[in-house]
Amino acid sequence: MSKMTADVIIIGGGVNGCATAYYLAKKGVKDVVVLEADKSIGHGGSSRNGGGVRQSGRDMRELPYAMYAVNHMWPTLSEELGVDVEYYQKGNLRMGKTEAHLKKLENLAARSRELGLDMNVVDAKTVKEICPYLSDEVIGASWCPTDGHANPMVTTLAYYKRAVEMGVRFFTEAKVASLGLYKGKLRRVILESGEVFEAETVIIAAGYESRYLARTVGIDVPLSTYFEEALVTEMQPHMFDIMLGCADGDFYGHQSKHGSFVFGSDSGLEEEIDMPLTELKTSSLTVSAGCRAIMSYIPLLADAKIVRTWGGWIDMCHDGVPVISRVDEVPGMILACGFTGHGFGTAPAVGLMLAQMALGEETVVDISALSYDRFKPVR
């Protein structure tokens, strides 16, 4: 049985794990190891999402670091990483078709403005001025001009590439079986192969699998799984660069740099999907429901051909926001899980904050509300 040591071990080679590795290396940490269970980097949710970089529609506990990422990191990320991550900051319309939709959007916009976000609800006329391709059924929308979108796979691999160049060691097909304590502190990461890695700090950013791993040292995070699906169309004439969403979450998406449309959607049946986490089959029920929703909002796409569909598992947290924190009961452990489908757009800020936490620094914004402690029993 071989043993390897590092200053920091990151479990999970998704966008959050890769970003954390990059920011640790940038801060001068010489020995960082990333362990990825699959054959490829970004195999999980990081390559299976619609690429939204949004602040609107977020829980108020997430909004400060979502805004930090948009204000201070995304605009220069392509230059910093040396790769075009296809970031467009052209705004986000979250559309409504009923008065109930608009009331929901008004409440969300009002709370967001309290934290300084430029977000307002606009009427049907303004919606058409922003995006003339939308259905007349849209009677209003929330509008956040500083929202946008980027390419999730390219972004993940850009972080990976720069981290490797800066000396981070990545191990693929390195599935973690358990964690191990030494003198009451998290120290060991044991792979299914029997290999043992050791570090002073272990960051668990492995999606739903984070729950299994934390349990091996007596910590349980209230996560559940949710299978979300997406589709991409054939290339279309350029229509718009904004991000779209719906008040009730029917679908979300954007037109990509080369012309295809990328959409994620819900059918209402996702919670009943009964498949193992290794299964990634898409459902004709979900795809058809998504297509109907998309056509009802963007009629011009009715005849667009679908090139492919794909799906992936989301780690849903009990209260809808992630756990990003140290765990007092297990010194040396940092959790970064339960992103509930919201994790891509905040990845630069999350990666930076995880690096800061690993080094004992104060995070760029206060994330105490995302502590694991919030789930301690109170009755």
TrEMBL record:
| Domain FAD dependent oxidoreductase, first and last residues per copy | 7-357
Q: Which keywords belong to this entry? A: Oxidoreductase
Q: Which GO terms describe its molecular function?
A: oxidoreductase activity
GO cellular component annotations of the record = cytoplasm
Q: Name one Pfam family in it.
A: DAO
User: Which residue spans adopt a coiled-coil conformation according to this UniProt entry?
Assistant: none
Listed PANTHER family:
FAD-DEPENDENT OXIDOREDUCTASE DOMAIN-CONTAINING PROTEIN 1, SARCOSINE DEHYDROGENASE-RELATED
The molecule here is called FAD-binding oxidoreductase
Origin organism is Roseburia porci
